[in-house]
Task: structure prediction
Amino acid sequence: MEFTLLLDPQSSVPCYQQIYAALRQKILTGQLAPRQRLPSTRALAQSLGVARSTVTQSYDQLLSEGYLQTVVGSGTYVGDQLPETLLHAHSTKPVHAESPPPLVLSAYGQRLAELVAGPSPEPSTPISFRYGRPALDQMPLGIWRQLLSRHCRRADWLDYATDPMGYGPLREAIATYLAQARAVQCHPDQILITNGTQQAISLATQLLVSPGDTVALEEPSYLSARRIFASQGANLHPIAVDGEGLDVDTLARLTDSIRLVYVTPSHQFPTGAVLSLPRRLALLAWAQRQGALLLEDDYDSEYRYGGRPIPALQGLGSGQSVLYLGTFSKVLFPALRIGYMVLPLELVKLFSRAKWLADRQVPTLEQAVLADFIAEGHLERHIRRMRSLYDQRRQTMVTALQTHFGPRATILGDKAGLHMMVRFQTTLPDAELIARAEQVGIGLISAAPQYLGKSPGHEFIFSFTELNEGAIANGIARLATLVSSSLQP
Result:
């Protein structure tokens, strides 16, 4: 059989790819019919004036993709069925029942359906003081790409992980880092790698809290954690927060049997209060007496401006009453989705099984890159650089608030972390203030949803990390002009 193939010797596309593309096109358009015999590689090579190996390479690619098939002793033929047809299922008419049965949810599903669904909307204004974003433009992407390229040359990360606890070198790097930076006492075998803090809280709730159990938490506190506890059917008991963090005396006076206490001691969310050392010791002593567990969420402890960080709760005690949670979403970038838990030894096997059932593993490639990023000192250098940058932006925000609002704005929790909470003396309801701010390009986040009980109102979460100093100063000045007429004397 003879047919024409046109090759362009001046093209940057290799000849074998040109032959492959031309033959594939003829097969798809029907110029070469199913089961039609093709010339031998030798004959086609002579006809085209190319090496036989070039034609062989083209045929091999078409064979591997299913466009051609070989018959021993007979030759090479066009395949019986195009590969494209195997990728599409035949359409069928849907079956419509006259009266479909009602959908029945489990108790967990019913509780989840009653909760507010999905994440809260965030401002999309030119100047947004939204919380949770580090300065992504400062991420050392060049170093990250180099490490990523290093591991992409290998293929061992393509398979299932053998340890549901996570990538061994990453757990070792985290253990070393936590011992130096947070005085956490742990062995790498106690560290479980999770898909962010959300999964860590979810696993802890599933394994440690039964419907009807009481969970104590700060008031106000992290909304997403509260929703996870509620979805499990826990009774939530809010404990007031003041300038020294969680009021441990109030907790100790409770007559309820507390199963779990969720706490953010290093930079309370959202007030920013730091749990004082005496209260930390009192909380650990209470947990030991009561047989309760403490869920310590250390979400942004890397950033403290002036003074050394207070050691983590986990490092102050025996470690058997505390489940320590950390994340790299705030210190590096949110899309990384790598968090971790430091578990008491007696819970390691149980959490390992639960993690395996939940999702098998966190992607190995990202874990391997992060392990090198930490072990080679890049993380510590990045944190030092960002601490200096964030401190400048924090001071700019504090100065702007004091200049434009004076005593009519109370700043809370600005000595650590990635945000501060500001309480305004204003007659405007939160929703109206947010709406007015949005009209002039300013995005605000109210602290009200973080309260389990009634919010005092007029409290807002101000993040200073992803805005430069000019945008911060401009945003606060515009906000001051907007609300000046509603501020109380």
Notes: Residues 11 and 304 are 59 Å apart (CA to CA).
